[in-house]
Amino acid sequence: MEYRLRATKLFTNDKTKGSLLDRHALLWDSGKSWAVSTVMTRQNHIQLTDFETTAFIPLWDMCNHEQGKISTDFNKEKNRGESYAKRDFKPGEQVFIFYGPRPNEDLFVHNGFVYPNNDYDYLTLTMGVSSSDPLRGLKMSLLTKLGLNYVTQYRLYKKGKIIMPELLAFIRIFNMNKDELEKWSQSGLPSDLVSSEESSAKEVGRDIDARAYKYLLTRCNILISAYKKFEVKDAESLNRKNIKLLKECEVQILEDAIEYINTKLEQFKPIA
């Protein structure tokens, strides 16, 4: 890992500019933008005697990422940061640390790489109820009961429960008819809508779930079609290679989700 920091005047005390950051002091060539990115992404929260601050931790912050568990913390008694090896390392072998449970889009934006074997990867879906939906009032009222009235970002996970509980609740509510919405609105806290447990699915009903999963399947198919039409040009540069790899990881999440949804839909087919 190479650090190439060039000194440049970043801040000004001229209050008439309305901001501490003097935009004219920076000429955003590749070197300076890399320097700023390096500083911003390598700040670490550390606990001093009576307050928390941010600082660089030399050598430690040069460690690259590897799947595992967080093994670094601040020891208040000894007033120092401590990092334990996450596994055995041989003499001369590169030492890795775990950056935390973050999706590849975060690792790419903030650290400049994509990790294909990321167990914590997920794809974000943007969803909402249209203002022209005739049932918008009922749907938003029910979403409000679950604390989802302001939520527009939902996740499809790579591992574990592929559909996050909040997303499951949204697609169920979004696909309800008027009678179903009114029925569920009368219950105190409709927690069964958030759960994928068999008992909750039974309470929700096969008809609602069949519509909900079909809707999500359609959304996933539209997305994956758009992904596959998107071409990464000039994929020889490191940045472009990472973009291509990120796209492949997100397509894999969609393919796994489609397989999972189709399995669920098979359960709703009438028994011959």
Automatic annotation (TrEMBL):
SUPFAM superfamilies attached to this UniProt entry: RuBisCo LSMT C-terminal, substrate-binding domain (SSF81822), SET domain (SSF82199)
Catalytic activity: L-histidyl-[protein] + S-adenosyl-L-methionine = N(tele)-methyl-L-histidyl-[protein] + S-adenosyl-L-homocysteine + H(+)
Rubisco LSMT substrate-binding domain segment(s): 131-243
Record-level Gene Ontology MF annotations: protein-L-histidine N-tele-methyltransferase activity; protein-lysine N-methyltransferase activity
Keywords: Methyltransferase, S-adenosyl-L-methionine, Transferase
Principal EC category: transferase
Entry's Gene Ontology BP terms: methylation
EC code: 2.1.1.85
Keyword Transferase assigned: yes
The UniProt record lists the keyword Cell division: no
Family statement: Belongs to the class V-like SAM-binding methyltransferase superfamily. SETD3 actin-histidine methyltransferase family.
Protein name from the UniProt record: protein-histidine N-methyltransferase
Organism: Pieris macdunnoughi
